[in-house]
Write the structure tokens for this entry.
Amino acid sequence: MNARANFIRMQDSTREDWQLIGGEFAQFTRGLPDRVMAHLKLLEGDYGGFPVDRYTHSLQTATRALRDGRDEEYVVCALLHDIGDTLGSFNHPDIAAAIVQPFVSEANHWMIKHHGIFQGHYFFHHLGMDPDMREQFKDQPHYAHTAEFCELYDNPAFDPQAETLPISEFEPMLRRLMASPKQSLYKAAMAR
């Protein structure tokens, strides 16, 4: 990735510039799964007071989903649901949702984006917050999907003794999922 366009303002760019940039972009996107796994690894050793570190929690959530027979997209969402903790301390679900959005269904994107409020059902009362805050979404089509994710996979994934598969178990799934976006502003341009 060494070739560069010659413009200093996008308004002065040419088709040739964008062909060059498109070629570089294609190479760069192939490394996305590696960058995502490296970022997820930043959660290792970050306990934040929890019984397991955030990396183990992520692996354990994905392990539970995999062992329950969920499809690869769902399992990868379970793996990445808290990846935003490092940069989005006050809005981590939004960060995770932005990362997975091009690759997942509307239901799974909504689940990741809203899991923080739904997970609060189990502990918000300890913080003086409303544990039923999720009820504001009771008429949303993905309410039950998200509530189930938290109940079955996110909520119980803090057990130091629970089965926790290594990242190598999930890496092929992540690579397959991120190989081709389902939706993206640039999808049509990428198809050319």
Remarks:
- The chain has a mean pLDDT of 95.
